[in-house]
Amino acid sequence: MSDEQTCVDFPGEEIDVRWDSRLCIHVGECGKAKGDLFVGGREPWCLPDAVTKAEVREVVERCPSGALTYRDKSGEPESPPTENRLMIASDGPYYLTGDIQIENAPDDMPGVRTRAAICRCGASKNKPFCDGSHEGAGFRDGGAVGDRGRGLQSTGGPVVVRSIKDGPVQVEGKLTIQAGSGRVAWQGENVFLCRCGASKNKPFCDGSHAAAGFKSD
Q1: Which of 2, 88, 120, 121 would be 139's cystine partner, CB 3.0–4.6 Å?
Q2: Is 175 helix (H, G, I), strand (E, B) or coil?
Q3: The domain that contains 89 carries what CATH number?
């Protein structure tokens, strides 16, 4: 599929916005933002010049999947947060923010370098990314976390996301995991997370992917 078919650009005087349909899971952070940057039913849907450049950056960076990105014409890129954090959405994906390096991610998905929604139900057709399939699959998990991890002496730095074939997703680097309740629950530097939806020890992998016949392709 070509870039023109999957991405839509919205040019502005000082800053451009791009929407990538491959990553959008319709959380609605953009449409519910106050102001006239994004207005449903309007053509074009996004008008970067309707608000300040600072507002464009702030609203676009709310997008948890990386489907929305911007190109600031001053050359200032989006900066990753100082802490790598993975939030477990109740009945939904892992929302990861930080200095992200997703192995084998396409080069034309710049949004996932700081923000990504990672599938944890096993049903996505766009693995490792969430595509909203958890709703139709009836996936249920509130995002409770039992283990505390080894802890961290510092935060930040790159975090590498590696999809193990027919198995879990490995996250290597300094990471804080936030439970579905909002609680900071786990901290460490290497973790294997369930992405088949079958683990009895969610969010952690317990090997259930083998018995479940999970296929990552």
Answers
A1: 121
A2: strand
A3: 3.40.5.90
